[in-house]
Design a protein that fits this description.
CATH superfamily of the domain at 181-373 in chain B: Dimethylsulfoxide Reductase, domain 2
Strand content of chain C: 15-25%
Strand order of the largest sheet of chain C: 10-1-12-11
CATH class of chain C: Alpha Beta
Distance between the termini of chain C: 34 Å
Oligomer: heterotrimer
Helix content of chain C: 25-40%
Order of helices and strands of chain C: EHEEHEEEEHEEHHEHEEHH
Largest sheet of chain B: 7 strands, mixed
Structural class of chain B: alpha/beta
Mean pLDDT of chain C: 90
Number of strands of chain C: 12
Structural class of chain C: alpha+beta
Number of helices of chain B: 23
Radius of gyration of chain C: 18 Å
CATH class of the domain at 181-373 in chain B: Alpha Beta
Mean pLDDT of chain B: 95
Number of domains of chain C: 1
Low-confidence stretches of chain C: 224-232, 246-250
Chain lengths: 184, 766, 250
């Protein structure tokens, strides 16, 4: 793979990690790659590094992203953080979809609103595949990085298990570096 | 912009990545057609309008959902609705925030921590439904057919109810809305008049209106309020009987700040006064009332002076009110009330007395008075819905209804009896609960007892649109589509402006939320019940609408609603044939007598507050519905917490000012969440008041959690209604705690010797 | 020239807050701000009896809008068209102005600097700076100007469940608002010190109007002492302040 194809694949991996860990597609490979990447980027967990089984992972995902509960919710949607305070399917979703259209793409039907972090990371991966760095930077600067930092800090505040802490930190690293080094 | 290799990945990592086969390779497809993006018109103008029915409260106003680019942007009334037109209330306007609440239920979930911890994991619909069906079958097999119970409410629960009924349990429907709310008024008026009177009073044409606790303005029922205001605008006088100066009292000509618990005394004295002074409608009584002589005998001697002492009111004020009422008979509205689960013991008598007073002054079937519904016949029993193999119903040896001679009046069994049986196993064990559309802990008296009962269950499942308290306690939570995302029933209004309309989905259900019909259909299949064979909701709705020569398509062509002419009045000179025991208006109830209950309303003192305490009463907020809306972003913003109303004279002596934070402590030693005080002259010194539904105990409702104080969590002493087994909600007394110090209420109003005080008993705290 | 006005009939108003919510829904007004809101008053004793009433509030679109004077943006020329006659007129306007044909006070969000001087100046608290947006600018009730242009009534008027909000052109002697003000005694919220000629009026029982005036009359704002950067702005504000002081009796 070429250098940037790695990054595209990596973004797809992260997109998968942010989706509900269903047994139909979840493999140990995902845990492995996150471990390796954490070593690469020197990411340490504040929680215990024990690898959860699938059921534990599903419960943790439910706790973090589906019905977080009191304390700040960690809903992984652009709408919740952008513009109107704390609601689904608002201007954040409209913004995301207008970016997808600009790239000639349409999100596949999903039970989740399509400004979910998994959609937006997958979108970045598609932009890299298409070599569309201009749109990628526009998407980062004018959309994703307007909400990701809030989502990220809330996610860490919720004290996730090591796996999700690693996923969050890796994602943060990639997005920040992309912004700094490519898009400035 | 130069693309660079901005991420230094090790060779090993690159190799691993290269080798990975991701099942899901991307969430996008190429964009084919340019779907038009609606632009242009400002605000909600230019949006697509879809007719439906509101469910932000139980009043079910016809609405239109306005959708732009697939997003619901506004909700307005259905302009063709003859009751509300294009208007909706604060809750109706805020339905959008129910739809897009990030806290909403999204996927079926299974409990992973202890009950009450709210720890869940997402599961599939198949797994959820399989588990529920398995547990229902297991429980009935082990403990008998009646060991399963459904707590339900409203239209969305109809299908679940049919399932439990088909399974042969006598506990197929516990509607807390009867046993914890409108049971007393429903029973009282139905046995008196022979039909479900509900709130069918002709405000618009009334010359005088009389309210017992009705607080329109804080209690919002759009169509009734429109008629009430029209009536006032036409010069109607208003009498409000309420220990609190409510929003309705603000528009009243006479406010009677009655001692709580004594309304029956006032009504009996009024009835006696009317009879004694020959102010009743003799002709109407003779033609259409049964039992007048026995009524006359029973109320004899109950003077206005007597009532004044009991009720702590001035004789001249009581007299002024009744004189005003009779001077304007028969065109007077005595509002029947709605939430009537006040004291447990005399609630039925209170509403019977109101019904009787209405009858003897002839304020029935005439303009301005109680009116009759206009029948609209819509086929409800459909082949495709009916259960073809329902279990034979074998009544239990001892029914949960046995203690209550009039419990048969309501479907299912009394709440209190189910909860007690779940704890004690007597008269038979109940080991499984289904809960749909009702917040058990905020709705039912003594939530601590309810929680104890839940701990005793083998299995409990809930169907929710929001993760409320029952969800926190459930083993399985099903995400139900909310009213904006589903079909429901055909709604018919049989009041003064009759219409038929249908709830239709305004948007597609989000996440994996499903409509109640889909859920019930799936569940029934797994339980081996041959029911709900209609493929879709459209199918059964079309069949129902066909009975009035309509279909969904025809209805929508007419704007989603069709109106009918009302026939609300009757000729008082004619002898009516009512569906009562005697065929006439029952002033006297032989069937009550047969069951050792008073056949005519009788005053029985309700114990007054212990020294140092005040009675806690509650009511409605205009921007909230029970405990449903506290998590709604907009409604929460409008009113995030409730406040405790305290009489200004008491407050002065207790050293309290508006805004001070206190905790209530009730007679059983239970403490409330902190609540701010509202000091006002508009409430009796022996009473405190707070809007109902606050103090959520669900941490999953991120906005509502612990906001304000819950009245229900202070309701730990309740009295059973002897008629049908309802529970009282206004039989608790509180004193206040501020900065760790106990503040007792000064006794500023004398208690006559006829009224005993409540004796405090020791009870363990939760 | 017309002047839109609103009369709120407290005899009919039940305090349901539908108006506040409909406005929020129509214009996406972000929480915690409001363009239209309801204050709940009482129960409280008044010389005319116990009152429990409401103050449904919104921008008063005053005859002499002090907010317009407080605006510090550079004036530019703008052309306006009378929607009724098609007549055109040119005016120098800053970032907020009173529409010449409707009397509605509007904000030009493209030109607003977001300094908040107008919001601080308003003695009714009708304006807010929307800090939820990337470029904070001021927002307020527009009497649903955009809806009026399409022949629709304001959202709050449309939703009012008791028909307590009456809206129309008060310069039209046949309009209901004119009659309610000039014949039925609907009153604006003014004090002897602060009378900017508000165009929202209230009708109600004596005790309710008493409580309304007691609790909701316009307040003297501290905008005069507002600390702003540019000296020029302070000069402008001082001039406007002098005009406000003219309202005060010594």
């Amino acid at each position: 793979m070429s250098e940037y194809e790695n990054i595209s694949k990596l973004l797809d991996v992260l997109s998968t990690c942010f989706s509900f860990p269903d047994k139909s597609f979840w493999t140990d490979e995902l845990f492995d790659i996150i471990d390796i990447l954490s070593k690469d980027f020197d990411i340490k967990c504040s929680a215990s590094p024990l690898r959860p089984n699938l059921k534990e992972l599903q419960a943790e995902y439910t706790r973090l992203f589906i019905n977080t509960g009191v304390g700040k919710i960690v809903a992984p949607y652009a709408s919740v953080y952008l513009d109107d305070i704390g609601l689904l399917c608002q201007e954040g979703l409209d913004e995301a979809i207008s970016f997808y259209r600009k790239a000639g793409l349409y999100p596949l039907p999903s039970s989740e609103p399509q400004d979910h972090i998994m959609h937006e990371l997958s979108f970045l991966a598609r932009l890299i595949e298409k070599n569309n760095w201009e749109l990628l930077c526009e998407f980062l600067n004018h959309h994703l990085m307007k909400w990701f930092p809030s989502f990220y800090s809330r996610l860490l505040e919720a004290k996730p298990i090591c796996f999700y802490e690693q996923v969050a930190k890796i994602t943060n690293l990639i997005l920040s570096q992309a912004r700094e080094e490519v898009c400035k | 912009m130069k693309r660079r290799d901005f991420l230094k990945l090790s060779a090993a990592t690159c190799a691993t990545l290269a080798g990975m086969e991701l099942e899901r390779k991307g969430l996008f497809s190429p964009l084919n057609a340019e779907a038009a993006v609606e632009k242009g018109l400002p605000g909600s103008l230019g949006a697509k309008e879809i007719p439906s029915v509101c469910e932000m409260c139980f009043w079910h106003c016809p609405i239109v959902g306005k959708v732009k680019n697939g997003r619901l942007v506004k909700i307005e009334g259905n302009p063709k609705s003859p009751t509300n037109g294009h208007r909706v209330c604060a809750r109706g306007n805020s339905g959008i925030q129910l739809l897009y609440d990030p806290d909403r239920t999204k996927y079926p979930m299974k409990r992973v921590g202890p009950r009450g911890s709210g720890q869940w994991t997402r599961i599939s619909w198949d797994e959820a439904l399989d588990e529920i069906a398995y547990n229902i079958q297991k429980t009935q097999k082990k403990y008998g057919p009646h060991s399963i119970a459904l707590f339900d409410h409203g239209i969305a629960s109809e299908f679940y109810k049919e399932i439990f009924k088909a399974l042969g349990t006598e506990n197929y429907s516990n509607e807390p809305c009867f046993f914890q709310c409108l049971g007393a008024v429903s029973l009282a008026y139905a046995v008196t008049y022979g039909y479900q009177v509900k709130e069918r009073v002709d405000f618009e044409n009334a010359k005088v209106m009389l309210f017992f606790g009705t607080h329109y303005g804080e209690n919002i029922e759009v169509s009734n309020i429109r008629q009430y205001i029209k009536g006032l605008q036409r010069g109607a006088k208003l009498i409000v009987v309420d220990p609190r100066f409510s929003a309705a009292a603000g528009k009243a000509d006479i406010w009677l700040p009655i001692r709580p618990g004594t309304d029956v005394a006032l009504l009996i004295a009024w009835i006696n006064y009317v009879i004694e002074n020959n102010l009743y409608d003799k002709d109407f009584v003779e033609t259409n009332c049964y039992g007048f002589d026995k009524l006359k005998k029973a109320v004899k001697g109950h003077s206005l002076e007597w009532a004044a002492k009991i009720c702590d009111l001035k004789v001249k004020d009581i007299k002024r009110a009744i004189d005003l009422l009779v001077a304007n008979k028969p065109h007077v509205t005595i509002h029947p009330g709605r939430h009537s689960a006040w004291y447990g013991k005399t609630d039925v008598h209170r509403h019977r007395a109101m019904a009787i007073l209405t009858a003897i002054i002839g304020a029935v079937g005439v303009k301005g008075g109680l009116y009759f519904p206009t029948p609209i016949h819509i086929k409800k029993k459909l082949e495709c819905l009916e259960c073809k193999n329902k279990r034979k119903f074998v009544p239990p040896e001892t029914s949960l209804r046995d203690d209550y001679p009039f419990a048969y009046f309501f479907p299912g069994t009394p709440t209190d009896a189910i909860i007690k049986a779940t704890i004690t196993g007597k008269p038979y064990p109940i080991k499984l609960w289904g809960v749909t559309c009702v917040n058990l802990l905020q709705t039912i008296a003594d939530p601590y007892q309810t929680m104890k009962a839940i701990e005793n269950l083998d299995f409990i499942f809930t169907s929710e649109i929001l993760p409320t308290e029952p969800a926190i306690w459930a083993d399985i939570v099903l995400p139900e589509a909310n009213y904006l995302e589903r079909y429901d029933a055909v709604y018919k209004n049989t009041d003064l402006y009759p219409y038929v309309t249908v709830r239709q989905p305004v948007v597609k259900p989000m996440f994996e939320a499903k409509s109640p019909y889909w859920i019930a259909k799936q569940l029934a299949k797994r339980l081996g019940l041959e029911m709900f064979e209609c493929e879709s909701e459209e199918e059964y709705l079309n069949e129902m609408l066909a009975s009035i020569n309509l279909s969904l398509e025809k209805l929508n062509k007419q704007g989603g609603i069709v109106t009918f002419k009302a026939h609300p009045y009757k000729d008082p000179k004619e002898e009516w044939d009512l569906n009562t025991d005697s065929g006439s208006i029952q002033l006297y109830m032989d069937s009550f007598e047969d069951n050792d209950l008073d056949p005519v309303p009788k005053y029985e003192p309700i114990p007054a507050q212990p020294k140092g305490y005040a009675r806690m009463v509650y009511g409605r907020s205009p921007v909230h519905t029970f405990s449903r809306t506290m998590n709604n972003l907009w409604l929460h913003n409008e009113c995030p917490q409730n406040m405790l109303w305290i009489n200004d004279e008491c407050a002065k002596r207790m050293g309290l000012k508006t805004g001070d934070i206190v905790t209530m402590e009730n007679q059983d030693g239970y403490k409330s969440l902190p609540i701010a005080v509202k000091v006002t002259p508009g409430i009796r010194p022996d009473t405190v008041y707070l809007p109902h539904g606050f103090g959520s105990r669900s941490p999953k409702l991120t906005k509502a959690y612990l906001q304000g104080a819950s009245d229900q969590f202070m309701n730990t002493y309740y009295v059973d209604d002897p008629f049908f087994g309802g529970s009282s909600h206004r039989t608790n007394f509180v004193r206040l705690i501020k900065d760790g110090k106990v503040l007792e209420f000064p006794e500023l109003r004398p208690i006559p010797p006829e009224i005993p005080r409540y004796k405090i008993q020791k009870k363990s705290n939760a | 020239m017309g002047q839109y006005a609103m009369v709120i009939d407290l005899n009919k108003c039940v305090g349901c807050h539908a108006c506040a919510l409909a406005c929020r829904a129509e214009w996406g007004v972000p929480v915690p701000y409001h363009r239209s809101w309801v204050d709940r008053l009482g129960p409280e004793k008044t010389p005319k009896g116990m009152s429990y009433t409401f103050h449904p509030a919104l921008c008063n679109h005053c005859d002499h809008p002090i907010c317009v004077e407080a605006c510090v943006a550079e004036p530019v020329e703008k052309e306006f068209t009378d929607p009724k006659t098609g007549k055109k007129v040119k005016m120098m306007v800053k970032a907020t102005y009173k529409h010449p044909f409707t009397g509605i006070v509007l904000v030009d969000k493209d030109r607003c600097l977001g300094c908040g001087a107008c919001a601080v100046a308003c003695p009714y608290g009708a304006r807010y700076v929307d800090k939820t947006k990337a470029k904070p600018v001021v927002d307020k009730c527009t009497f649903c100007f955009e809806r009026l242009e399409h022949g629709e009534e304001p959202a709050c008027v449309k939703t009012c469940i008791a028909d307590a909000r009456i809206f129309g052109d008060i310069t039209d002697k046949n309009s209901e608002v004119y009659k309610l003000v000039h014949e039925k005694g609907a009153v604006p919220l003014v004090t002897k010190d602060i009378d900017l000629g508000p165009n929202v009026y209230y009708l109600g029982q004596e005790k309710d109007i008493f409580l309304l005036k007691k609790l909701c009359s316009p307040k003297k704002t501290p905008w005069i002492s507002q600390n702003l950067e540019a000296p020029a702005r302070r000069e402008l504000l001082k001039t406007a302040a002098k005009k406000l002081l003219d309202f005060e009796k010594a």
